[in-house]
Amino acid sequence: MSRLRSIPVNYVVIPCISILIMIFGKWYASHASLWYITLKIPPIVPSKNMMALVWHVISILTTAAVLGIWNRAERTMRFWIIMVLFCLNTILNASWSYLFFYQHALAFATLDTCMIATTAITIVVLLWPLSRIVTILLLPYALWSAYATVVMIALWMLNK
């Protein structure tokens, strides 16, 4: 029992938040499969398996990055701005699943995706001077978010 007490709470809380966001997204996605197949899908949309793989890898890398910055960075104004952006990005990710899969609100989901990409890219830029390793962990997420924005714009345009 003493071993469990020595584990810092952030090593439990941060991964749990990542897992909850993934469960949340998967739950909404599972309730929208009939609607999704009615959409016109642009050719740039990756397969369901590819998307699942990429998002799992990104979730692991992002969780590692948040843990890395939380555990090693000095608590400066830059640090707190990055943390606020991480929280905002997490909320935006959760809201995207709700907007897209539950509300079928393609325009709002597209706007949400743009904000996800903007916060991810901003985090990468702000992190670079603090930790190049953490920044590199987040690069796939920033790039994928930018790509997802292009995909969402195409999906929205095809299904207006």
Structure description:
By secondary structure, this protein is mostly helical. The chain has one domain (2-158): Up-down Bundle (Ferritin), CATH 1.20.1260. 81% of the residues lie in helices and 0% in strands. The protein contains seven helices and no strands. The model has no long low-confidence stretch (mean pLDDT 90).
Can you tag this structure with a few keywords?
single chain, 160 residues, mainly alpha, Ferritin, 7 helices
What is the tally of beta strands?
A: 0
Kindly report the CATH topology.
Ferritin
* CATH-assigned homologous superfamily: TspO/MBR protein
Question: Roughly what is the average pLDDT, rounded to an integer?
Answer: 90
Discrete helix count = 7
- Secondary-structure element string: HHHHHHH
**How many structurally independent domains?**
1
- Give a quick account of the main beta sheet: strands, pairing sense, barrel closure: none
Helix/sheet category: mainly alpha
Query: What would you say the CATH architecture is?
Result: Up-down Bundle
Note poorly predicted spans.
none
Report the helical percentage: over 70%
Radius of gyration: 17 Å
Shape field: globular
The CATH class is identified as Mainly Alpha
Gap from first CA to last CA: 57 Å
Strand content: under 5%
